Every structure is written in structure tokens, then in C-alpha cells.
Write the C-alpha cells for this entry.
Amino acid sequence: MSKPLLDVKGLSRRFGGLKAVEGLSLEVGKGEIVGLLGPNGSGKTTALNLISGALRPDRGSVKLDGLETAGAPNFKVARLGISRTYQLVRLFKTMTVLENTVAGMSFTHGHLFGREATTPAMALLDRVGLAARASHRAEDLTYIDQKRLELARCLASRPRVLLLDEWLAGLNPTELLQAIDLVRSLKHEGVSILMVEHVLEAVRSLCDHCVVMNAGQRIARGTAASVLADPEVVRAYLGDDDA
């Protein structure tokens, strides 16, 4: 079995007396899509914050291709090859769509800027369906298009591992199918993806395997079909009366 590209072991973080993440372990192989599932408040976003460098873990390990990144600041983690989206979209709102995408290229090893970055940035915008809006200010985009822009900016950094935090939320059925195809195409290009997601259609369609959290801990791991049928997972989502 090949070594995982992203290897998380024993990751933990407390906020006072709250165990937000406790002993979480997961692996993501090259070109693999892993779903990180669980009810609201189970610690999924905190886990992404720890992996991406937005938070420092109390203990545990995060290795990217064997290199320890746990505790490194997020800009260093991004330059090493881990990029992410957020539940609440974060953009440079007064900058144009193109400028936002070019900004993402400053985190690549090549540090592309200015005219040199324009052509690849436009190619990314075309890929996410925003090329026609390149000159628009980010704050003038619809919510869905802001999410597309955030993804383009992430891809501009040429990530080896992409963390998606409910990126598919709020899409209509047509947009959802297009988004699933886009995420699948990233996998085919060798990008590894860890996705927090509640859209089960996407989870079943995209994920090679899933990790399920509840109350900060991993409670299940396996294929989407197996974990969604696991009685402990059903209890976590629905409660004992419905399990």
C-alpha cells in the first residue's frame, strides 16, 4: 500500500473544557477524495483549521508527503501545498475577480505576478465559469459565483491537497452536477481532496472513502455506503430514537 499524501494522526484541540477535536486520525492518498462527515458541531471545520494551519493543535501530527506541518502558520502550509475553502466565503471583496485569482498565485513555488499570472488565472476562471466576469469586483458576484471564485483562487496556488468546507452547499441541481464534475476532474489531475460535505449525492458520487466524526472524535471510516448505514453514524445524525 502506497504512503498517504496527507497523513493525520492523533490530532487534538481543546477550547477551554470543550474537546473540539480529540485524537483524530485520517489519511488521504494522491488523487483521492475523502469525505469528512458528521453532524453540525462534530469538529469537522476545526479539523480543517488544524490541518490548514489556521489553528495550532494541542497535540498530534499532520504530515504532507512525510513532512510535518502541524503548528506551522497557514501561509507556510499553503506554500507547501495545502489550500482550502471556507464555509463563509473569504475573498478580497474590492478587488476584481481576476485580481483575486492572481493573488492566489503568490502562494505557488513560482510566485507568479502581474502579466505573467494573467493567462493562467484566466484559464482557471474559465474552468470555474467566471471568465466573463474577470473584471467584476468580487463583492458584486452572487454567492454561488463567490464560491466559484474562492475555488479558482485555491487552485491558483497549485495545491497538492485541497480542503473543501461545504463548497457544494447552496447549489441548485444543475450547478451541483457541474460542481461534482469539476471536483472529479481535479481528482483525475492528481489533486487530493478532503471534503467536509452534507450533500450526500456528492459524497456517494465522489468519495473514495469517508471518515465520520461526532463530538470531536472519529466514529467510523469506510466507503460512503458503509458509513452511512453504520448504526452509530445514524445515531449521531438522528439520535437514538431514530436509529
